[in-house]
Amino acid sequence: MVKRRSDLTQPRQRRRLDLTYDSDAFGRFSESIARYLGTARFLVWQTGVIIIWLALNLIPPARWQFDPWGRGLVLLTLVLSLQASYAAPLILLAQNRQERRDRVTAEQDREVAERTQADTEFLAREIASIRLSLADVVTGEELRDELDTLVQAIERLTARLDATTDTE
């Protein structure tokens, strides 16, 4: 019988066995298995084991066969089903861990791209302000022209002064 509680704002605590494990170590272990299951070496080994299994259960006399063909190779089917039942979750766990790493990497890439864009926009503004500042700067040619004009004005004034001092 379920005991009724007066405080219904919190869910009941589930009773759990106190099993603890290092999820990161288990994740690394599952990734190593998933990585091995996805190799040609594993397929060759599995094919070899199955061929040997079939040979040991087809060639010798019936009394030496441990998984006879007449029963439909039940033990081989059980072993392969057990392998698949463990391999699938381990592969999914490895994929989930890889997805989390990819998500973190994508987030870091996005942050770097945002910083790069901000830096690029800052540099573009700085270059534009430098261009505006340089637009007001006198070039060497303009300075020579102005100096030539001043020299001509000074020569005219000197000529006038000479003319007025000669007439006196």
Note down, in words, how this protein is organized.
The protein is mainly α and 168 residues long. The protein has one domain (23-162). It is 74% helix and 0% strand. The protein has helices spanning 23-37, 40-58, 74-135, 140-167. It is elongated, with a radius of gyration of 44 Å. 2% of the residues are buried.
Characteristics of this structure?
single chain, about 170 residues, mainly alpha, about 75% helix, about 0% strand
Q: Which regions contain 5 or more consecutive residues with pLDDT less than 50?
A: none
User: Number of folding domains?
Assistant: 1
What's the β-strand tally?
Answer: 0
Number of helices: 4
Mean pLDDT: 88
Assembly level: single chain
Q: In sequence order, what are the helices and strands, one letter per element?
A: HHHH
From the alpha-carbon coordinates, what is the Rg to the nearest angstrom? 44 Å
Structural class: mainly alpha
The helix content is: over 70%
Main pleated sheet: none
Name the overall outline: elongated
Q: State the end-to-end distance.
A: 136 Å
* Proportion of beta-strand residues: under 5%
